[in-house]
Design a protein that fits this description.
The structure holds 2 protein chains of 2 kinds.
Chain A: H1 4-10, H2 13-21, H3 28-46, H4 50-56, H5 64-70, H6 76-83, E1 97-100, E2 110-113, H7 115-133, E3 146-150, H8 158-169, E4 172-175, H9 178-183, H10 186-200, E5 204-208, H11 209-225, H12 236-251, H13 258-261, E6 266-270, H14 273-276, H15 278-285, E7 292-293, E8 302-304, E9 311-313, E10 318-324, E11 349-356, E12 365-378, E13 383-393, E14 397-400, E15 404-407, H16 408-417, E16 422-432, E17 435-444, H17 450-464, H18 466-475, E18 480-485, H19 489-500, H20 516-523, E19 528-530, E20 534-535
Parallel strand pairs in A: 3-4, 3-5, 5-6, 17-18
Antiparallel strand pairs in A: 1-2, 7-8, 8-9, 9-13, 10-11, 11-12, 12-13, 14-15, 16-17, 18-19, 19-20
Chain B: H1 4-24, H2 32-56, H3 60-88, H4 95-113, E1 118-124, E2 127-132, H5 134-160, H6 164-176, H7 178-189, H8 196-212, H9 221-250, H10 257-287, H11 289-305, H12 311-325, E3 331-337, E4 340-349, H13 365-373, E5 377-378, H14 393-402, E6 406-411, E7 417-423, H15 434-472, E8 477-481, E9 487-490, H16 492-498, E10 514-515, E11 518-526, E12 529-539, E13 545-553, H17 555-607, H18 612-639, E14 647-649, H19 651-661, H20 663-668, E15 671-676, E16 684-686, H21 688-710, E17 713-722, E18 725-732, H22 739-742, H23 762-772, E19 776-780, E20 787-794, H24 804-807, E21 818-822, H25 826-838, E22 842-846, H26 849-858, E23 863-867, H27 875-885, H28 887-890, E24 893-897, H29 903-912, E25 916-918, H30 923-937
Helix pairs in contact in B: 1-2, 1-8, 1-9, 2-3, 3-4, 3-5, 5-6, 6-8, 7-8, 9-10, 10-11, 11-12, 11-15, 12-15, 17-18, 17-25, 19-21, 21-23, 26-27
Classes of the chains: A alpha+beta, B alpha+beta.
């Protein structure tokens, strides 16, 4: 495979658009045609491998229909003995890289990826850059040499692996340099990135949305206070930038925001919080964030178009199946229940089932992600493929009296829209006197009673989630119960986790259903004000 | 200024630039380079237009204004050209551009609105010239630096480039930028005639060359062709303008200037027309050489298409044509194999061809794309087209290993994919142009047809060969006979068997090929072989009617059938003879016992004192009964099947006895028998019964041959010694044996008699018996009258000791003894008792074996006469028991046999070593046997 740089030298803009963003123009039939032929190749490749035999059986399916009817769904447990030890002899094809997940579920999932897959991942990275930067169809704004501001963990974390891979195939200037990404603690990495960006500027930023918001807050704070002047910030270019930013902010009579200092082409923000922080990101960075659906298993499976509305699946990364998601716990699923992309219906939730291509081992693998099909196609953008949004992990939801299911996205949106000024929050299900409650533990920036918080959140939830309305009507009371945490609770928790040497993904408490240990740490961190009781 | 060359020459440059603008303008959205180059051309165009305006101006003030505008255009020309080169060599930094344009803008203002660059205008002989100000030197110096920097960068880029083709492009770009600068310097700082516009013309010309010849931009062929015409016109115009200038210099003050111009133009037109044509053609060839190649390639393919009957030749020729026409590093052809729909490498020109593994699968996304799009697929599209992102990795690698750059489908008009042409990069490292791809598409269509025709031809040939192979491997003859009875097809079997060839006249009788719609079947003997033939009509595609014959050689089958029938008949005969033998044996046994009594008593009576007439009657009884005994004996001899039993045989006696067997039949057939037997004929060791069978067959045959035509005949039987052989002749005066069957009469089942009259085995058996005895048998006949059957038997001497008992048959007069007679037949017991008592012996007679054993246990007998066949206990069993009681007594046993014994009984009897008397026997034989036993016991 040629480096992506070569394509920029040899292809016209139109061709470049087709190469990187052409998947947006596919019809469902074309999408399936690509999927089917790649799956056929995959079945022929893996049939004789150890893991292939284990999953497919002694008599591997010969057709795609047979595959979908007979091969059972798998989870990481099915592969763990082989993949956790990186046993390449169990695979059909020697992988190009091994990366692991964030470990949010409690353990790292090691996933192998093939050379063709990594080539496509590099292509998709460039596609992400360009779609994130584009304002209309056919626009190619990001070319080799682009300056990318990154706040990501190093390889073998997925995002680090992805950027390492991209660096081999596409010329870009990493801010901070990739060498530092691995060597510096995450916070210092962000600080360093800020300093360098202040001097040299950047074109594209890629990170988790909340981190970007925080980065924006940090940067604007630093720029405003000038508290941490270093040699870098004393650089003429940095001083010029700060001066320009200051003048811009003064002209609008507001504090300095990152957008006054830089004019980024694109901001990539993946994660549930991207939508939540959308407004903040626009406020700080001047542009809407660009969302992608990715993971260690997928790298990229879907991304938004230039409209930055909903996401469109990529046809050639993994074989996609959609298992209708039931809110009912313990619902059994048969192999034949999974649907193809031409069978999904708008408004419905589906659990993602994927099969890797190019001889990699994951077959009918339950991702544990729940997506919602928003619409079939996007008329405004002229897209024909289903448009989706990622709702949550399958076990990260709170079911209230079997009437509604509240996930992180819904809760976060409700909290954010309620006008609360908060630092961080977490929520879980609580039983009291045979009644079900939603317990919200929140650290506020402003003094507010727990009851008021509950009232506001309840109000917003009623507007966001129609099922939630039924809950209150059925129960006859507000199911939200709030615990206000003392100031600095979450910061102390993070500090403690950092001191303990926890991995990056464990620095933060989970928003939904945190573990008992996390809860006890948070609740025991300082003064806690419950809605029902006040205690020291 | 009245010099038209001076005034009009900028327009030539303007026209040239317009043409270039037209060339570059299409597809401007494709890349930024093209857009920036467009700015260069705009600047150049304005320069030319302003120059024309300046030269057309009548006042110095107007000239000054235009000249300053020219300077501005010139500044932008250099800036934009630098910008273009900056982008073209792949630089992305923007600050040099900002710097450059930032400097150009104020400089342009200075040049336009102040006298710092151009202070004024001066008139020269050839036109106007600017009076430059101090700033002009700075500006020229800056431009020099800019041009130098640009040239260095282009030269560097040229060094880094590996393709000579692109290197030349860089070189020309480095040269071209210097030209306007030199023109500008010449116009501004020297008193030379105005050269700036000529420099611009040269700039345009070289740019055109870079665009057209070295593919700076992809130009469509029509636009290119138009440009070539204009370029030729411009080139022709240059000497024209030069000539006008020269003429103007010489004829400046003459009144005839106008007429001179007219005359010069006419003369020029006359002189230059051939030159124009020549130049146009040369340039056309230079810039469109590929077009000529393409046309040649198309012609080549069309010319060869009909001749490309060999599929392999067709594929090789095709790749060669494409390789040559497109100047590709290689051209390969992928086609499905006979046993696989996947596309394999079948031919390659410029690269090795190893068709070991398939390159593209039958349902490969590339194949699907090519079928659907029906156009050439540049390999780089594989990285672009979304629908091609599912190409299997193996195929992608295979194409990368092939270094595929273009993939052209060979599609038939019906949409079938004959194959895929794969082209490598151009040998010159240039990019394939749209023309190349268009040619490839055209060639693809033509080639698909040629390949399809070749494939159809190959299939037809293969089908014909297969059919011929099938027909030639058939064991039957297949012939197709057309109009005029001429053989149109004959398979190999037919050619070899029938010794005829297609084209010769048919060997078969004409006749209706079918009867009642069913193919006709008949048999015919051709060249000594018998054929079963089926014929049927064959309507050919042209509507002509032929006949197809399928001929099966059934000669062997018929012979086998006859053989099978003969064997069946023989089996039936054998079974019949066996039945006769069984019956004869039973009859003989039943007859022999009473016959023994008759003979014995007749002899007793004959020995008694009787009247003469009674004695004569007894003699007749004895004679008749003795004759009956002989008949019975011969009947048994003939009927009983047994192994050859060789013993000394008197052939004369055999002849006599055989004649005696047929005596009655011969007499009743009016056949007179003559014998001419050699009385001194020696005995020979042979099977007497088999010899008798031979003679009997010969006599019966002679009898049959003579009796049917004239109911009488003469039969001669003769014997003589011929050296170490006995010769026996059986001669008749029948119709004789035809010569043509004389060789076959000894064959089994060969008979000339009607069905049911004979088996055809007689002479065959004779031949077998004689041969078994080491002799031979033959026939001699002239085929018209009589026949002689000759039998030659070698004389074999008898080595066994002579039998004393047989030497003399005289009534013995030995000692008296006690004799035990054991026989279940009462008449025999009585006869034996009477005969032996008459001779003085004391006789005890018992009817069964048990009684015999009891007697033997109780008494001592000098001789025991023991019948072999008795109920309850056979004679042999009794013998064994007696032997157990007293071995010496066993040696005095004489066996009595009623008929010819079975072989195993005979063998057991011989093992006992006891003598045997066959019933019916003579009294003398009995007494001699008793005498022999008694002598032996003494």
């Amino acid at each position: 495979m040629l480096p992506e740089d070569v394509y920029f030298k040899t292809l016209s803009t139109e061709e470049l658009w087709k190469r990187y963003c052409g998947f947006l123009d596919l019809t469902v039939e074309e999408f399936l045609q690509i999927q089917r032929s790649l799956l056929a190749e995959q079945l022929s490749l893996v049939a004789d491998s150890t893991l292939g035999r284990k999953i497919l059986g002694a008599r591997p399916p010969r057709t795609i229909e047979e595959f979908r009817e007979t091969v059972p769904f798998t989870t990481y447990d099915d592969y763990e003995p082989y993949l956790s030890e990186k046993r390449e002899d169990s695979l059909a094809v020697k992988p190009a890289v091994w990366c692991h997940s964030s470990g949010r579920s409690g353990k790292f999932k090691w996933i192998p990826h093939s050379e063709p897959f990594m080539n496509k991942t590099a292509r998709n990275c460039v596609a992400v850059f360009n779609l994130a930067a584009a304002s209309h169809r056919g626009e190619i704004r990001v070319t080799p040499g682009v300056r990318v501001l990154v706040a990501i963990p190093p390889a073998p974390y997925t995002s680090g692996t992805m950027f390492e891979n991209l660096r081999k195939r596409f010329t870009f200037q990493s801010i901070p340099p990739m060498e530092l990404v691995g060597s510096l603690p995450f916070r210092e990495q962000i600080a360093r990135a800020f300093e360098l960006a202040l001097r040299d500027g950047f074109d594209v930023a890629g990170a988790i949305a909340s981190v970007l918001v925080r980065m924006g807050e940090q940067m604007s704070g630093q720029a405003a206070r000038m508290s941490k002047l270093s040699l870098t910030t004393l650089h003429p270019k940095a001083l010029f930038r700060i001066l320009r930013g200051y003048l811009r902010s003064r002209a609008q009579k507001r504090p300095v925001y990152p957008r006054d200092l830089w004019s980024p082409l694109a901001i990539m923000a993946s994660g549930v919080d991207a939508n939540i922080y959308r407004d903040d990101l626009i406020k700080y960075w001047g542009i809407a964030p660009f969302d992608v659906y990715g993971s260690a298993e997928l790298m990229f499976a879907a991304m938004q178009s230039w409209t930055k509305a909903h996401m469109t699946f990529l046809p050639d990364m993994v074989f996609l199946e959609f298992l209708p998601h039931s809110e009912r716990e313990g619902a059994e699923s048969k192999p034949g229940d999974a649907l193809l992309i031409d069978q999904v219906e708008p408004g419905k939730l589906y659990e993602m089932i994927i099969t890797q291509f190019h001889g990699m081992p994951l077959l009918r693998y339950r991702m544990g992600d729940v997506i919602r099909v928003v619409s079939i196609g996007d008329e405004k953008a002229g897209l024909k493929l289903p448009q989706i949004e990622v709702r949550r992990k399958i076990n990260e939801a709170i079911n209230l009296a079997s009437l509604c299911t509240l996930d992180e996205r819904t809760l976060w949106a409700a909290i954010a829209d309620s006008g609360l000024s908060y630092v961080e929050w977490t929520a879980y299900k609580e039983y009291h006197n045979n009644e079900t409650f939603l317990r919200l533990a929140i650290e506020l920036k402003e003094p507010l009673s727990a009851a008021e918080v509950s009232r506001r959140v309840d109000e917003r939830l009623k507007k966001i989630d129609l099922d939630y309305v039924d809950v209150e009507r059925y129960l006859g009371f507000n199911p939200v119960r709030t615990t206000v945490l003392s100031k600095g609770t979450f910061a102390r928790y993070t500090e403690a986790r950092v001191r303990e040497g926890a991995v990056l993904s464990h620095w933060k408490a989970a928003h939904v259903n945190p573990s008992a240990d996390v809860l006890s740490r948070l609740l025991g961190s300082g003064t806690v004000v419950d809605e029902e009781r006040h205690r020291e | 200024m009245t010099n038209p060359a001076y005034v009009l020459s900028p327009l030539i440059a303007a026209a040239m630039t317009v043409v270039l603008l037209i060339l570059v303008l299409p597809a401007i959205y494709r890349d930024r380079n093209r857009r920036v180059f467009l700015l260069v051309l705009f600047s150049l165009e304005l320069w030319a237009v302003f120059t024309f305006a300046m030269r057309s101006s009548r006042t110095i003030e107007a000239v000054l204004v235009w000249d300053r505008l020219i300077i501005v255009c010139m500044l932008f020309l250099f800036a934009t050209f630098f910008h273009f080169c900056h982008l073209y060599i792949g630089r992305r930094s923007r600050w040099p551009m900002y710097l450059l344009y930032g400097a150009i803008a104020p400089t342009a203002g200075v040049a336009l609105f102040t006298d710092l660059v151009i202070q004024g205008i001066k008139r020269l002989g050839d036109g106007y010239a600017p009076e430059v100000g101090p700033m002009a030197f700075v500006m020229v110096g800056a431009m020099q630096l800019l041009i130098a920097a640009n040239t260095v960068r282009l030269i560097r880029a040229r060094r880094q480039e590996v393709s000579p083709y692109i290197q030349r492009r860089y070189l020309l770009l480095a040269i071209v930028v210097v030209l306007p600068f030199l023109g500008m310097v010449a116009d501004g700082f020297t008193d030379l005639p105005p050269l700036g516009i000529w420099a611009n013309l040269a700039f345009c010309t070289i740019c055109s060359v870079v665009i057209l010849r070295y593919g700076l931009f992809d130009i469509r062929i029509i636009a290119r062709r138009s440009l070539i015409r204009l370029l030729v016109g411009a080139l022709i115009a240059i000497p024209y303008v030069g000539a006008i200038i020269v003429a103007n210099a010489f004829l400046r003050d003459r009144d005839s200037l106008l007429w001179t111009y007219v005359g010069a133009i006419i003369a020029y037109a006359l002189i230059m027309w051939p030159a124009y044509e020549w130049a146009r053609e040369r340039l056309d060839r230079l810039f469109s050489s590929k077009r000529y190649d393409y046309m040649e390639a198309l012609r080549d393919l069309a010319r060869n298409a009909d001749a490309l009957s060999d599929s392999q030749e067709a594929t090789e020729k095709l790749t060669e044509i494409v390789h040559r026409a497109l100047n590709a590093s290689f051209a390969s052809l992928l086609q499905p194999m006979a046993d696989s729909a996947a596309l394999h490498l079948v031919a390659s020109n410029g690269a090795s061809c190893s068709p070991a593994k398939p390159i593209l699968g039958e349902a490969s996304p590339i194949v699907v794309w090519l079928r659907r799009q029906r156009r050439t697929l540049p390999a780089r599209t594989l990285a672009v087209e979304s629908l091609l992102q599912n190409i299997p990795q193996a195929e992608r690698i295979a194409l990368e290993e092939l270094r595929a750059t273009l993939l052209a489908p060979l599609l038939t008009p019906h949409g079938g994919l004959s194959g895929i042409l794969v082209l490598g990069p151009k040998a010159s490292r240039r990019q394939y142009t749209l023309d190349d791809i268009q040619l490839l598409d055209n060639l693809g269509g033509e080639a698909a047809m040629a390949l399809e025709n070749a494939r159809l031809y190959r299939d037809a040939v293969r089908a014909r060969e297969t059919l011929e192979a099938w027909l030639n491997n058939l064991p039957d003859v297949v012939a197709i006979v057309g109009r005029g009875d001429v053989i149109r097809f004959l398979n190999r079997e037919g050619i070899e068997r029938l010794c005829v060839r297609p084209g010769q006249r048919s060997f078969l009788r004409p006749g209706s090929p079918e009867e009642n719609g069913v193919p006709r079947r008949f048999t015919e003997t051709i060249r000594g072989r018998e054929y079963e033939i089926a014929s049927a009509p064959l309507v050919e595609p042209g509507g002509q009617l032929s006949l197809v014959f399928v001929m099966r050689d059934i000669t062997e089958r018929r012979q086998e059938q006859a053989e099978r029938e003969r064997l069946e008949a023989r089996a039936r005969l054998a079974s019949h003879l066996a039945s006769i033998g069984e019956m004869a044996s039973g009859i003989a046994h039943e007859i022999n016992n009473p016959l023994t009594a008759v003979i014995g008593y007749s002899q007793l009576l004959g020995a008694a004192a009787l009247p003469e007439d009674a004695r004569e009657a007894v003699r007749q009884i004895l004679q008749g009964s003795t004759r009956v005994a002989g008949i019975v004996q011969r009947l048994l001899t003939f009927a009983r099947q047994r192994k050859p039993h060789r013993a000394p045989v008197d052939m004369n006696e055999v002849i006599q006895s055989t004649l005696a067997l047929r005596d009655y039949a011969l007499r009743t057939s009016n056949i007179h028998v003559t014998t001419r037997l050699d009385p001194s004929l020696p005995h020979t060791v042979a099977d007497g019964q088999q010899m008798q069978q031979v003679l009997l067959n010969l006599i019966v045959n002679a009898e049959a041959a003579m009796s049917s035509p004239h109911r009488k005949g003469e039969l001669l039987l003769a014997s003589e010694r011929q050296g170490e052989n006995l010769h026996i002749l059986v001669q008749d005066n029948g119709p004789g044996v035809p010569r043509e069957i004389q060789e076959r009469i000894f064959d089994p089942f060969f008979t000339t008699r009607d069905i049911g009259q004979g088996t055809g085995l007689g002479l065959s058996i004779c031949h077998g018996i004689v041969s078994e005895h080491g002799g031979r048998i033959w026939v001699r006949s002239d085929g018209a009258q009589g026949s002689e059957f000759n039998v030659l038997i070698p004389i074999v001497a008898d080595d066994s000791p002579p039998i004393e008992a047989a030497a003399a048959r005289q009534e013995p007069a030995g000692p008296r003894t006690r004799v035990l007679v054991v026989d279940d037949e009462p008449s025999i017991r009585a006869l034996l008792k009477a005969v032996l008592e008459q001779k003085g012996h004391e006789v005890d007679a018992v009817a069964d074996g048990r009684s015999a054993i009891e007697r033997v246990s109780a008494h001592r007998y000098g001789a025991i006469l023991l019948d072999v066949r008795m109920p309850d206990m056979s004679g042999l069993e009794v013998f064994q028991r007696i032997k157990e009681i007293a071995g010496s007594i066993a040696s005095r046993v004489v066996f009595l046999t009623g008929d010819l014994m079975a072989d195993e009984t005979r063998a057991l009897l011989e093992q006992t070593g006891a003598p045997a008397l066959a019933k019916p026997f003579q009294s003398q034989d009995l007494l001699q046997a008793i005498e022999g036993v008694l002598k032996a016991s003494r």
